[in-house]
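hey m, so remember when u said the C-alpha cells were messed up on ur end? i reran from scratch. heres the input so u can diff it against urs
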Amino acid sequence: MPEMKSAGQSGSSMESSKTMGVGGGDDSVKRPREASDAAVLTADTITKLPAEATGAVVVSGSHGGLYPGTLAAKARVRAVILNDAGIGKDEAGIASLHLLERFGIAAAAVSHMSCRIGDTADMIDRGVISHANAPARACGVTGGMSCREAAEALRKAPLAAPDVPTLVEGRSEVQVPAAHRRVILLDSAALVRPDDSGHIVVTASHGGLVGGNPAMALRTDAFAAVFHDAGIGVDGAGLTRLPALDERGIAAVTVAASSARIGEALSVFEEGVVSAANAAAQRLGAQIGRPVRSLLEAWARL
C-alpha cells in the first residue's frame, strides 16, 4: 500500500503525524494524479482538507452524511471512506454514499462498531467496511473488507469532475419566546463562531472527539451544546465530547441516532431525543429519553 499522509489540521501537524504502509519519500500531490499512483490521505475531519486531497483517496473520520459528502465532492477527491455513524434515522449516516454515486465518485463507510468515529488512525487499524456505493463496488470494495484494503482498492477509481452545487452554510437560529440566550442550529460544528459564546449551540456533528483531541470538542465557550451520538459505537466514541465539555463547565447532550438525522441540525432540534448527558447538563435537568427541543427551550429561558 502507498504511504498514507495525514492532513495537517488543528491539533496535529505533518511533523507529528505517522505514515503507514509501504513506500517512502515525500510524494506530495501537485495536481490530480492518475489512478495508478493515487495518494491515500487521512483526515480526522473532512472539513479541513488540504489541496492535496484533489485526486486522492481520502480516509476521513467524519460521518457519512450529506454535508461531508458535499465537501468531499467539492474537494474533487478520487474516492472517500467515512464512518457510517450508526446509519440512523432515514439512513442519514450513509447519505453521502448515494450523493457521491450520483456524482460518479466512489465512496464507502466503515462500521461505527469497528473503529472510533473521528479517529482515522483507528479506522486504518480496525475499521471494517459496512457499506459501499456502486463506483466503490466496481473497484472491488465489499462489506466486511478492512478499511486499509478498501483504501488500496479505491486507488483504481476514476477521477470524476462533477458540477457540485454551491454549499449553503447550514446555520440558522430558533426563536424561543422569552429567551435570555440564543439557540443556534449548525449542520456542522465547524460552523461555530466566537460570538456563539454563552449561547446554546445545536450541532448535527457527531459527539466524538476529533482525533481524540479535547481542544476540538467545541471551539467556543457555549452555555450548552448538542451533538448526534452517531450510534455511540465502539469504545463509546460517539459520546467522547461530553466529558471534555464537562471539564469546561459546558452542559452537553447527544441525541440518539435513531431519533434524528446526522448532519441536519433542524432534525436534531425538532426530532432528537437525549441519549446521553454530561454532569453539567444533568444538573440543569437533562434526562435520557427527553425530547431535546423541550430541554433547550427551558435552557434558553434560564
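this time it looks ok to me. The chain has nine helices and twelve strands. if urs says something different then somethings off w ur setup not the seq
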